[in-house]
Structures are given as structure tokens and as C-alpha cells.
Amino acid sequence: MNTTDHSEAILKEIEQKFQAINQKTDVQLEGLLWSKLITYWDYIQTDALLNLQIQRTTLPDEMVFIMYHQVNELIFKMILWEIDQIADTENIQVDFFSERLSRITRYFDMLTNSFSIMENGMEVDQYMKFRNTLTPASGFQSAQYRMIEFASTDVINLTDRRYKDGFDENTDLETSFEHLYWQAAGKDYHTGQKSYLLNEFEKKYKESFLRQMSSFKTKNIWQKFTQLPIEDQQNTALIDAMRHYDKTVNITWVMQHLNTARKYILESGKGNGEATGGSDWQKYMHPKYQRRIFFPKLWTEEELSNWGNETIA
């Protein structure tokens, strides 16, 4: 095909595209005469992105803390983007499923490895000063992270283990929500009283969380796995990808986060041992206490009993 024929073929496809949406091709093409050529900074929105870092103090290392957490939120968005592809693909194929899971796990691997930025990239004295200006805000309040959880597994697997035996897949979402494992970080179950941290979090996001819980009830990662043909559910590569994702999110990444927090809050000798949000953060964060497991049926009894003890393969 020569250049003229190629151009005519492209123009024909353009014509078909705009005819399909009842638009005039000539108008669209004429618009190209006046449109600006794209630049890297316009496409990435660099100026907007680099102006989102607003410090509350004059301490230089606070900027590291802000940017690091903003990067985390961008990675969370990438993870949700990949999960949506799994959730919304009809008759999903094993290769596609495994590839998307591998992408998601690589993102979490990146998050895990990046904790050295927090662990070794801030002066303890500076951190212990500017963190006081963050109270009562907390990383607990990352809504995207909660969205990832709802999109990964059945709600029963996110239920506080103290109450899990009384719940099943038919439990209404509102009741399930009130007994999610992370409610314990800001709720007194004896009185029902919630902390300011938790109340503000729910005021902002509860409706969105309930919609996510409802939307992903039949299309979360675990449900998409169980909807595969039996032979595909026995695919070794896919099972390995599921297990790797589960362990990476619920043990490896969490433990790296916990160890970094310990360095500043406990081992520095400069803090009072409390999280900015006021939670019992060590028990809240440690996987052996949470026992949050996305895909429990893919683990042996021995592996489940050792969850969070770092003996799990």
C-alpha cells in the first residue's frame, strides 16, 4: 500500500468513526487545524501535579512525607485500574487474569520496597515534630486502600475475626460495614462509640464504601476466580499469582509499614508510642492479629495458622 492509499484508508476509518456518533467528519478535521500540539507537561499535567504539595510546617523533611504518600495514592489508583479490568471482563481468560494480578502485585512490591524512603529518608527529630501537626489525621484514612480491599475479596474476609463466626454472605452490608476489621482502630465495641478519626472518615467516604461493597460482591477478584471453569481454577500459575498477591498485600507490605512505624514511634525514644490517629496501631497493623486474608481457601491449615509469622511460603 502506497502513501496515498494508506491516507485514504485512514480517512475512511475516521469517516466511519464519526458517522457512528452522528458527527460531521469535516468539522472534526478542521478542528485539528487549530488544536495545539501535545507536550509532555500538558499531557502529564506536570505543573498541577507539582503544586499539590502543601506543607503545614517549615521542616524540610515534611515534604518527603507528603510526596511519598501522594505517590502511594497514585499507585493505589493504578491498582484499582487493573482490578477493574479483571472485574469488568466477561468470560475472563486465565492468561489475562494472571497478567493483571502480576501487574497489581508488582505495584505492591514497589510500595513495599519504597518504604526505605520513609524509614531512612527523614530525620527522626524532624518527623517527631511535624507529625504532631498531623493529629488526628492518619494513613488509616486512605479511602483507595479500602476500595482495593473491597475489590479483592468477599466482605466476610474483611470482618473483624471476633465477630466473623456470626456473619455470612447474606449479612446486610450496613451490618458488615460496622464490623470490618479496621473499625477496631477507632471504635469501642463495648459502648459503640467511635473516635473522631473514624467518624470523619465515614462522614467523607461511607456511602462510597457501601457502593463499592455492593458493586464488587459478585465481581471481586476472589469471585472472578470462583467463576472460572474448574480446570482454570486449578491452573498453577494463576493460583501462585493469587497467593503471591494475598501475601504481598496482607503480610509483606503491612509488615514493612509496621516496622517503619516502629522505628519512629517506638525505637527513636522521642515519641509517646501513640499513632497520630490514636489507634492501638501495633495490634491493628500486625497481620497475625488482624488475620486479614483475601483468599483463605488457597492456603493450607498450617499456612493459615502461621499467618503473619513469616514462615509462610
TrEMBL record:
Annotated protein name in UniProt: Tryptophan 2,3-dioxygenase
Classification via SUPFAM superfamilies: Indolic compounds 2,3-dioxygenase-like
UniProt source species: Flavobacterium hungaricum
Pfam families from the UniProt entry: Trp_dioxygenase
Domain of life assignment: Bacteria
